[in-house]
Amino acid sequence: MANIKSAIKRVKTTEKAEARNISQKSAMRTAVKNAKTAVSNNADNKNELVA
C-alpha cells in the first residue's frame, strides 16, 4: 500500500479509470460482435450497426 498522499490518490484514480476502461472495452467488443454477425447474416439493420 502506498504511503505518500499523492500515491494513494493515484491508486484510487487508477482503479476508477480501470473500471471505466473495462466497461468501455466490453461494450466495444459487444458492438463489434453484433456488427460482424449482422454483416455475415446480411441483416436489414447492418448499416446502423457498422456505422
Automatic annotation (TrEMBL):
Ribosomal protein as a keyword of this entry, yes or no, is: yes
List UniProt keywords, sorted A-Z.
Ribonucleoprotein, Ribosomal protein, RNA-binding, rRNA-binding
According to its UniProt entry, one GO biological process term is:
translation
Query: Which Gene3D superfamilies does the UniProt entry name for this protein?
Result: Ribosomal protein S20 (1.20.58.110)
For whether the record's keyword set contains RNA-binding, the answer is yes
InterPro entries per UniProt: Ribosomal_bS20, Ribosomal_bS20_sf
**Which terms in the GO cellular component ontology are assigned?**
ribonucleoprotein complex; ribosome
- What GO MF terms are annotated? rRNA binding; structural constituent of ribosome
Name-wise, this protein is Small ribosomal subunit protein bS20
Species annotation: Staphylococcus aureus
